[in-house]
Amino acid sequence: MIACISLLIPPLMLSYMRKKILNKYESIYESIVNYIFCLLALNFLVMLILCYGFNSKDNLFFKLNQYNNFAIKYVLLSTLFAILEPNIEKVIREKISIDFNIKSIKIAETIQWKAILSIYATILFILNFIRIFDNNFWGDEAFTIGLIKNPIAKIVTGTASDVHPPLYYFIVRLAYVIFGNRGWVFHLVSLIPCFIILFLSLTVFWKQFGKEFSAILITLSCLSENAVVFNVEVRMYSWGSLFLLLSFYELYCILQIDNRRNYLLFALFSLAAAYTHYYCLIAVAFYYIVLLYLVFKRKYLNMRKVILCCTATVLGYLPWLVILVKSIKRVKDSYWINDIPTIKECVEYLFSNHFQPVVWGGIAIAGLMFILYETRILSVKKNEKGFLLRLTFDDASISENLIWMSAGIFSIVGTMMIGIIVSKVMRPVFLVRYLYPVSVVAWVLLGVIISRVKGRGVIYCIDFIVFAHDLFT
């Protein structure tokens, strides 16, 4: 009975609200058809979110009938979508501008997409936000809560005797002092980076990389299985991912405009990442290696700015370097990790183990196309007969975008390989969850590739595959 009510009532509300808000007159037959459509679409959407967002794969009717809390949450989520959908549809209809002026059409289209993605991001954030009221904490979370209740000096000594830098604990300590000892406060601290990433996706990143990039980053930041866990887990991984993302973006800005302000922000965010988790320290180290390579090998950047940036970062981390060395010696003698993850497990973890081989193949093809475009080996021109695909090495060069994305790949692969190699040589000190911060960098790379290889780029991909087939057969 409860299952039937949970599944049938919210679609009825959706059908009614669409009729009222969109001012639609419907016959009895049309009303029945509309209700059936709402019934299927609404429940399919909610079940999809529960399955892939919250890993809920048990029998739906059983859970609705047996667990009242689950039924209430299911009805509330369905009701939320029933309220939002008609209003979203109304906004979209009103924002459409029928104007033959190309500039006006593009502006209207941008406003429309911005409105859609803003509402989409809001809904996804709410789905993560409602999870902060869960007061269940596992061992490491309990350690965090217990540690931050001490004065700052004891927090430093406590985390120094553990294996993590102190910045995250300072952030949680600040929230504890302001809001008190409440379970939702500790979860909310971990959710703040998700909000910042969503805001940047709709503003700064939208302007730099486009709507496709923003949509991918928003989706993966809120719905990927690993993000759903770490967005509310009382540990430092969400903050590590934010600081890595910001430092990676500032590296992009440095390669584009070589501005002093970007060097300063790059150093600050890199230090923040390094003071959040040791594997974040390893990841940002590869960004600095790329900067030094560009200065000394390619003479590409301003040497004075790069040297000052690197020096400031090293000096900023020196106070904790002695503790890092002591932690390494202590871990070498004894540590609780027993197994070493494989490279395959690490790569799959970047996207929550959901990508099938065909998806990886598509990403590989899109990545190849991106590299060929950015190196100017491949060019596509339009003529009266269609698209002309030209493959040449005469004008080959490496663009700033390609250098930047290579730095991201180096940081991901380098973090992964150092963790595995050190674990094999010394003792196991690496878990796949330590890769979560660099997962965000992988999402950025995927977003950039797809945003660059889109629309006509799909046609170019197909043409290139046909061209390669003809060339080698």
Could you give a quick summary of the protein structure above?
By secondary structure, the protein is mainly alpha-helical. The protein is 76% helix and 3% strand. It contains 21 helices and two strands.
Class by helix and strand content?
mainly alpha
Shape: globular
Beta-strand portion reads: under 5%
Helix-residue proportion: over 70%
Radius of gyration, CA atoms, in whole angstroms: 25 Å
Give the N-terminus to C-terminus distance in angstroms: 64 Å
Spans where pLDDT lies below 50 across 5 or more residues: 96-106, 455-473
Main sheet properties: 2 strands, antiparallel
Overall mean pLDDT score? 80
Map the helices and strands.
Layout: H1 2-21, H2 28-53, H3 60-66, H4 68-95, H5 102-129, H6 139-148, H7 152-161, H8 167-179, H9 183-202, H10 204-209, H11 211-223, H12 225-230, H13 237-257, H14 260-274, H15 278-296, H16 303-333, H17 343-349, H18 357-374, E1 378-383, E2 386-391, H19 400-425, H20 436-452, H21 456-472
Antiparallel strand pairs: 1-2
Report on this structure.
Helices cover 76% and strands 3% of the residues. With 473 residues, the chain is mainly α. A two-stranded antiparallel ribbon has the order 1-2. α19 packs antiparallel against α20. The longest helix is centred in the C-terminal third of the chain and has 31 residues. It is globular, with a radius of gyration of 25 Å. It starts with a helix and ends with a helix.
List keywords for this structure.
473 residues; mainly alpha; two-stranded antiparallel sheet; 21 helices; 3% strand; globular; disordered C terminus
